[in-house]
Design brief:
This protein is α/β, with parallel strands linked by helices. It is built from 13 helices and 15 strands. α4 packs across α6 and α7 crosses α13 (341-355). The longest helix is centred in the N-terminal third of the chain and has 16 residues, at 71-86. The chain is globular.
Length: 407
Amino acid sequence: MSEREVAVTGIGMVTPAGLGREATWDGLCAGVGVGARDAALAGLPVDFSCAVPGFDGDALLGRKITWRNDRFIQLALVAAREAVADAGLDPAAWDGPRVAVVLGSASNGGDRWPQEYRNLAEGRVSAISPTALLRSLPNMVAGEISADLQALGPCLTTSTACASGATAIGTARDLIRAGACDIALAGGTDCARVPMGSAAFHRMQALSTRRDDPAGASRPFDADRDGFVLSEGSAVLVLERPEHARARRARVRGWLCGYGASGDGYHATRPDPHGAGARRALLAALADARAQPQDVHHVNAHGTSTALNDRVEADLLADVFRTAPPVTSLKGVIGHALGAAGAVDAACSVLSLQRQLIPPTANLDRLDEGMELDVVAKRPRQHRMETVVSNAFGFGGQNAVLLFRTA
């Protein structure tokens, strides 16, 4: 590998498919949607979501941390600790000022805001927590990881809607290339399954309304899809300068070789129907990696299960790749975790390369008419691959595409 590539040496994940990297991978490969009724959303028109199973922040992190941090930060802390351990790194021994943190988030948290607003409306100002603002500010997730792991280099937060996690990984790669750090902890986190999130997205007609079948509600590329399913989660990658990884004889899970970003300049919520912005990001990632479309062996699609997004992405892939490589969307299993989604997709793209296995797209019973895609469905597929593209597209027309190669 050249010094343009950046090593992926650690992965941590906390998702509705499982608590931890391996549990998530196993859940995704099972190919069964995990959507279920959500007590936090009771009484709303859309009262189901995809939640991380068995997540107990107090047990995993300690009350000293959880009392001041919303759930989206707690999820990221657990994922970051797992990623660092997976990389074989010891924060007590590393050169902290040479370690960066770049985390993406779109909706942040908000799980405790309803109670704070009630306190304010009822005139009980003294009941408002002194941590009300701090625990939900988007930059605090990077700040908390920095403090928790003594990562004292550049400490940044990206917010590009549903592309936030992928943007964070690309930004961290650029920091390493620029010589600003030797190691970067990069990824995304969000907890979108809150009442205001459900109500607002429902009013936008973005959510599936399959209340009678929550597990089957997220249906990327399926002819009967009717919207996405709110989710939560976090994924963090440890990225390293190649020389640094070699010097400590680190195991390399994969190489981040390409990153492309663009703006649609079209609409607040709808993608450009011709996919021009997404196409620019995809071609930029290919060019950055010095790759051709025929070099790509698998695409981890954004695939939200919304009518327009899936159609535009399918047309884009068919056009750029001519004969599209096998495609999957993890959102069929775990729903849409907004700012975390691009990071989860990136992490699983690296695992797919390592294991030469593509997780299936859940709930795909009938590919929508006219989609010229080879979508992996029902069961995982063994597939020889050296290069994987991971797409992330967000509201506001913000696009980020990552390209990984096998180690």
